[in-house]
Specification:
- Helices cover 62% and strands 1% of the residues.
- It has a two-stranded antiparallel sheet with strand order 1-2.
- It is built from 24 helices and two strands.
- By secondary structure, it is mainly α.
- β1 and β2 form a beta hairpin.
- The radius of gyration is 29 Å and the shape is globular.
């Protein structure tokens, strides 16, 4: 019975699809040129596995130093692909329940979508009609799962182990002082051309259609849940999504723009801070080449915080600009607040006050704006209530969302969080003083550490720290890269403060001021 139901559904669906395609081709056939051009527009991008093999071979060809097989660069080029098998494991879609928690039918269920297509086709309605939906739903929920649940857990286990390795690699980078300058195997112009070609392909991926996201938004009775403090979507990004969901191209365009900002930022970091434009272009090319970027090319929640953090590094010589950008990243995704101890100690006695001031202003402005927007919509109280009871970011609660920690008692996750919190607090004073290499390594380690204890799909948020990880691969010796000292004679803020303070102070008569106010001729007369 189940095989007959599937055969009929599949046959009807294929017939409808073939009818639509034949109509479209017959319409194009009216113009011979359009029919000919369609042969050159039949472009299919590779799947995740093919892209993994292709990008790995190309990365080795471009960045692997065959004359120094035991160099750290070679090891990083190979191991940066460590998380890809785990992501491939968890990418296949899981079956969705037919009914919501209120007992209502979910119209997005594949079963109902197939029934709608077959019932509305021009070749006739489905013989079974809606009565066969129950049998099809049972089959879909039981047998359509492309991967058993244990394999899904093994995929998240792979991501956890890989994230732990990246954390150790970032900590080891703190001890790597001498970094030889290893140029890529392709010239700057060749890397720029390849990066432009890769970006064009990724833009095509982002705009090719409304494909389902690998990790769809959680639902409550058919409506989107309130927003999470860390994870797929925060309150800020949820508001942006609501503003742009009627203009799908605008939402995808925003994500692509953030990826472009990351690419430009990596190039500028290589030029300004590394003193090697080729290293910056190599980092940008590898960022576009890695499968992680292509996997989440159209998802703003994965790339926006990384873009703001990268540009904070670009303008790291200006504490106020860096603090403002890091504050915006915190207001958008919350987790960059954990980088505050690292950056504050980096600017210690070299602009830490103005960095903290700009950070707090940016965070406050963002949160107040989103809070007012949620209050106007009437969802502020529901969002706060949902965040307060969410177990994903509260390690003392047993999580229920999909991930490595699903169903595992909170007593095992809580020690991991305690160790992570101690590490974040230790970054305030260790190491001291900090240079730019320490900021890159510790920032990447802090974001990677979130993947180890966050319950909801922990390990998949690779784009949060991927630009920093790529910079660690290509960075030179950055011991001398520290914030420039503030010169009170030329700094605009010090001059403004002196000007305002001088006007606020009352005029007092002193011997020095009296001496300067008397003319030289009068002083000679008094002396005579």
């Amino acid at each position: 019975m189940q095989e007959n139901v599937f055969a009929r559904a599949d046959g009807e669906y294929n017939a409808i699809f073939q009818t639509l395609v034949s109509n479209l081709l017959s319409f194009r056939g009216r113009d011979g040129m359009s029919a000919t051009l369609s042969l050159f527009l039949d472009f299919n991008l590779p799947n995740a596995t093919t892209w993994f093999y292709f990008s790995f071979l190309l990365s080795v060809s471009l960045f692997f130093k065959f004359g120094r097989l035991l160099s750290m660069r070679n090891w990083d080029v190979v191991t940066i692909f460590l998380l890809v098998p785990g992501l491939i494991f968890i990418q296949p879609p899981r079956p969705t329940p037919l009914l919501t928690s209120r007992g209502l039918v979910d119209p997005r269920h594949p079963t109902l979508q197939i029934a709608r297509l077959t019932a509305g086709g021009t070749i006739g309605a489905w013989q079974g009609g809606i009565t066969a939906v129950g049998s099809l739903a049972e089959v879909a929920d039981a047998d359509w799962a492309p991967m058993p649940a244990p394999w899904l857990w093994y995929g998240y286990l792979w991501l956890m182990v890989g994230s732990l390795y990246f954390l150790c690699r970032c900590l080891v980078d703190l001890a790597l002082v001498q970094r030889p300058a290893l140029a890529p195997n392709l010239s700057f112009g060749g890397l720029a051309f390849l990066a432009a070609a890769l970006l064009s392909c990724l833009v095509a991926v982002a705009f090719r259609g409304r494909a389902h996201d690998p990790f769809p938004e959680p639902q409550i009775d058919g409506a989107a849940k309130p927003n999470k403090p860390v994870g797929p979507e925060t309150a800020t990004l949820a508001q942006v999504r609501e503003w742009t969901e009627t203009r799908w191209w605008l939402a995808r365009g925003s994500a692509v723009t953030c990826h472009l900002a990351v690419v430009v930022g990596l190039v500028l970091i290589g030029r300004r801070h590394f003193g090697d434009p080729a290293a910056g272009m190599a980092a940008a090319t590898m960022y576009l080449l890695l499968p992680y970027t292509g996997l989440y090319i159209g998802q703003l929640q994965h790339v926006l915080p990384a873009a703001l953090i990268v540009w904070a590094i670009v303008v790291s010589a200006r504490p106020m600009l860096a603090g403002g950008l890091l504050g915006l990243a915190t207001g958008a995704s919350y987790f960059p607040a954990l980088l505050l101890p690292i950056w504050f100690s980096y600017y210690w006695k070299r602009g830490s006050g103005r960095f903290l001031f700009a950070f707090l202003v940016a965070v406050s402005a963002t949160l107040v704006t989103i809070g007012v927007s949620l209050a106007i919509d009437g969802s502020l109280e529901a969002s706060l209530r949902y965040v307060a009871q969410l177990a994903d970011w509260q390690p003392w609660k047993t999580p229920t969302s999909e991930g490595f920690w699903t169903g595992i008692h909170a007593g095992y996750r809580l020690p991991v969080f305690v160790v992570y919190a101690a590490f974040v607090l230790a970054t305030i004073v260790w190491p001291a003083p900090k240079n730019l290499a320490h900021v890159l390594a510790l920032s990447a380690a802090t974001i990677v550490g979130i993947q180890l204890w966050y319950a909801d799909k922990g390990g998949v948020y690779v784009l949060w720290y991927l630009p920093l990880l790529v910079l660690l691969v290509f960075r030179p010796n950055l011991v001398e890269r520290r914030p420039p000292p503030i010169n009170p004679d030329t700094d605009w803020l010090c001059r403004l403060r002196r000007a305002l303070w001088g006007q606020a102070q009352p005029k007092t008569l002193t011997l020095d001021s009296l001496a300067t106010s008397v003319s030289p001729e009068s002083r000679r007369r008094l002396a005579g």
